[in-house]
Amino acid sequence: MISLSAEVAAAVAEGRPVVALESTIISHGMPWPQNAETARLIEAEIRAGGAVPATIAVIDGALRAGLDDAALERLGRDKGVVKAASRDLAVAMARGGSAGTTVSATMVIAERAGIAVFATGGVGGVHRGAEASFDISADLVELGRTQTAVICAGVKSILDIPKTLEFLETQRVPVLTYGSDEFPAFYSRQSGQKAEHRCDTPEAIAEIIRRHRGLGIGSGLLIANPIPLENAVEIEPIIAAAIADAARQGIIGKALTPFLLARINDLSHGESLAANIALVRNNAVLAAKIAVALAERNRTHGL
Ligand code: PSU
Ligand code: MN
Fold it and tell me: What sign results for the dihedral spanned by CA atoms 86, 292, 14, 55?
């Protein structure tokens, strides 16, 4: 059901390190041309780290892992590319459409393709005001039932971070924080929430991934990697203004997250975008190290 590029197929078959990448960040998370440039940059970071990048998307109805340059460019430019969560995959396939895959959809495809490690910028979560709107990202539900390990920069403060962490606890998702005692908040290293499990090496994280998968609990893992200090930005008032704009304009459902990301970028005059690119890159570097350590462990201990 999934079409792997020759490079990704060979790496998976031989048990070499592979890192999955999502594509909603390309189609709906960043503006053209920085979206496609960032996609290429993070693929290069993963290769430099000794792993094979597998960018995942739906192209003309096909679930693909490992994209060529033309497909990346199309995801970045073509306004007809929709946003697909895991529930939207069957519709896109049946209709022959093209879609950027969110964290939930990318996890499903990565898992079916045999890829255990996935890097992104931020995951979806429980939105502020969810007690009234019920807006909770499908990413969190998918994390509860698909085994992929997701490396991200924590949760954006467009979301309710304490509620998101509660939801992950309910869904039996281990939350690991790399090199920090505090769970990070995407643009910022601080969220006010303590990191439940601090890990200081990629090897320590790989060992937890291997044990978690071995237990067959079935849930994924969330690995939070704080933004580098030199790239962090303080834009909380802009985030609050973007949320107020969305409420005023009645933006809800799957349109809300892309609206907020674009609005924050506009209001910060590109400051948020620069931080976003830096953190995705940082996550790709860590994910490659984790994938290398995991492949090494799987080789010596068996899957
Ligand atoms: N958060 C970000 N950047 C993103 C997204 C979330 O900081 O690009 C994207 C991811 O693809 C994520 C999706 O899976 O938004 C979540 O959308 P929703 O809130 O509609 O579930
Ligand atoms: Mn939502």
Answer: positive
Q: Give residue 24 CA to ligand 2 midpoint distance, Å.
A: 14
Largest CA distance in the chain: 56
**Annotated catalytic, 22?**
yes
> Is 296 an annotated catalytic residue?
no
Percent of the chain with pLDDT over 90: 98
How are beta strands 2-4 and 99-101 bridged, if at all? Answer: unpaired
Pocket, ligand 1, Cβ cutoff 6 A: 22, 24-25, 29, 102-103, 121-124, 137-139, 156, 186, 254, 257, 261
pLDDT tens string 70-109: 999 999 999 999 999 999 999 999 999 999 999 999 999 9
Determine the Cα–Cα distance for residues 19 and 116; give it in Å rounded to an integer.
Answer: 8
Which ligand sits nearest to residue 159's alpha carbon? Answer: 1
- In the chain, what are the domain boundaries? 2-300
Residue nearest to atom 20 of ligand 1 (CA): 254
Q: What is the pTM of this model?
A: 0.98
**Statement: 2-300 belongs to CATH 3.40.50.2000:** no
pLDDT tens profile 250-278: 999 999 999 999 999 999 999 999 999 99
